[in-house]
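Narrative summary of target 7.
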Amino acid sequence: PVLRALTLLTIIGFFTAIRAYWKSRDRSVEAWLRYSLVGYLVYFLVSAGVHENHLFLGSLLAIALAWQNARWWWTAVILAVAANLNLVAFYGWFGFIERRTVGGVDLTVWLAMVLSIALATMAIVLLRRDRAATSDL
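Modeled conformation, tokenized:
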């Protein structure tokens, strides 16, 4: 039942991103990359079995977005750092598996919570930025 609910949430998120893209009427490469990144973040945040190492593709989308418009540089930095923090949290700086706990909870769980909040905020900002631009039209 949980997997079905997550699948439904993922599909709803995808359709929300697609609908927002079509309503924006902005057919630039920048807009396409922005909404693609939002869709990817929906996948990353809601789908079951996704891990931080799956952020690599999202990092490429964010780099391409920053290439199109430098105001989005922060998305590329956040996704690149997030993807690499995962490796450090799991394997340490020297490649050995090191399990550390903070407050009795595995460090990787804390990392996942912080990244989920940061990436959800990023998706909201990417969509909200568009609403501000279309309200000026």
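Helices lie at 2-24, 29-46, 55-68, 73-91, 107-135.
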